[in-house]
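Hey L., structure's done. Input below.
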Amino acid sequence: MTLRIGNASGFYGDRATAWREMLDGGELDVLTGDYLAELTMLILGRDRLKDPATGYAKTFLRQLESVIGSAQERGVRLVTNAGGLNPAGLADAVRALAARLGLDVAVAHVEGDDVNALVPGLTANAYLGAFGIAECLNAGADIVVTGRVTDASLVVGPGIARFGWTRDDLDALAGATVAGHVLECGAQATGGNYAFFTELPDRARRPGFPLAELHADGSAVITKHPGTGGAVTVETVTAQLLYEIGTPAYAGPDVVADFASIRLAADGPDRVRVSGVRGAPPPPSLKVGVNSLGGFRNAMTFVLCGLEIESKSDLVRAQLTDALGPDGLEFTLARTDRPDADSEAAASALLTVSIKDSDPKRAGRTFSQAAVELALASYPGLALTAPPGDATPFGVFTGHFVPQEAVEHVAVRPDGTRRTIPPPATTIAGTPPDSQPGSPQQPPPGVAVPLGTVFGARSGDKGGDANIGVWARAEPAYAWLRDHLTADRLRELLPEARPLPIERYELPNLLAVNFVVRGILGEGVAASTRFDPQGKALGEWLRSRVVELPQELLS
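Output:
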């Protein structure tokens, strides 16, 4: 027996037509949509401040209107976390939509993730597991709306409902968790954001969305609908498996999946088999994501052209510090200029000045006007990339933990009856695997080339931290990666990471090494003033750095 589960959304703002494409593209049993991220919860929290009746992903309703009838006709059940901070509100809105369209649709929702009473904040939501979703499906729901569940739970829940897994079926739960992790970011599993994108077929077309053929033992085949763009290969799946992970012990509310046990194998064109995943009991605590309002922020960017770039930057720094005082100011100089350039743009560098402050006036027009007032009183050739603007509020993300039994995980069935999902009876407060800094070895003389000539990478944000997963394309290259890309070597290649704690984990089954760089994103994406606030391009920066590689790896 196979359960075909597709994905039609990887984030709040993903391709609006994906729900229709997935329903029309081929056979499905379940179609999921992932809308939530740390930043999204902040956005929804601010929405809820303006209107307590909101707090959910409104785009889902617009997408659903064009497909709800088709899904019902075809017997495809829909599962989404678009409920955000108000799953009951979105469930009611879905029922109203169905009624307006003359459809009889059974809608259920999962709630209980809001733990503001335990951990105060603008938003405070525990990452719930999959058994509430399964209860809703078993009660006959056509559409299940959740709040903050783990992204993988959108896939694990339907697996529990179809195959009857219990909390003791740890390997099956772990396998489904891995399949859910592959699907959760949509087209990233089918060639989107892929390091070797120029090798993909029909790369000018948009990649299709992925689906998993999930089996009773938790193994799965990752594929996509025929005729859709992109590709599903061992490497595109590997890239997504490395996205936003930490230790190989991938902890969730229902199971700890051992990512080091994952085995991937090609299973035909655009088909990759995922098997061998081992599971262990979950931890006794649930992760809680808390967003708080941190103050106000603003930024202005100066164009510095031609000679004496550093001195021009120093002058702006001194002038703005004199005008505003140093508190909350941050200066970032991007040396995008080239000597003897044949265009003005190529001769220019960019100095971005950011400010954070609890006072919206100081961070607003006081700051931006101070920048504008330098127009005729600073360095030669001064230009700004945008007019002055007001400050905007920013949020701070922090992670907390609460006991599983402190959270009331509730499935609200289509008939309105409520069932509390008991926490797992068996948990293990396991210690995370030790970081593996690597054994520094002096590489033999080789050919100086960018690291990305041979290795792929993918990176992403987890609160104020970022991960960088690096994979090899063959065993000999993995041997070099394992032996030579140590935590200290990463610090040399990425100077911004030099003062920060770095954890390193080896994933030999994936021919990969994963790094977690603690604190590189500061207080999280909503507060970060980095050029790349979500760390999405850290992997590509690393791939661009020149290293010496053995000639045999280049042939």
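Residues 309-324 form the longest helix (16 residues). The mean pLDDT is 95.

-- N.
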